Amino acid sequence: MHVTNNDRAAWAQVAIDAYQDATGTDDESALGDLLCDLRHWAKRADYDFDEYSARGLMHFEAEVEEEEDRRVAVDERSEE
Predict the structure, then answer these.
(1) Distance in angstroms (rounded) separating the CA atoms of residues 17 and 34
(2) Residue 56 has pLDDT above 90, yes or no
(3) How far apart are CA 80 and CA 75, in angstroms?
(4) Rounded to whole angstroms, how far apart are CA atoms 9 and 32?
(5) pTM for the whole structure
(6) Three-state secondary structure readout of the chain
């Protein structure tokens, strides 16, 4: 199964929804509050949040680039 960035965004929405259900946080505050609470969790679990955040950004950028490369390849094949 090929995983798309839309799939990844849908998984993130499930996490946001669960967080909002648990906390009552509104849509505008949910992401920031979840990130803050994840920092608390990381500190307690002895994880370097900034290191994992940087790793997550690196993965995000690679996944966006991969999807763009796929789109360009499909466009080029359809032009042939």
Answers:
(1) 11
(2) yes
(3) 9
(4) 16
(5) 0.83
(6) CCCCHHHHHHHHHHHHHHHHHHHCCCHHHHHHHHHHHHHHHHHHCCCCHHHHHHHHHHHHHHHHHHHHHHHHHHHHHHHC
pLDDT, mean over the chain: 94
Q: Please give the C-alpha separations between residue 31 and each of 17, 26, 73, in angstroms, as whole numbers.
A: 10, 9, 34
CA 11 to chain centre: 8
The residue among 54, 28, 25 whose CA lies nearest residue 37 is 25
Residues 6 or more apart whose CB falls under 8 angstroms from that of 6 comprise none
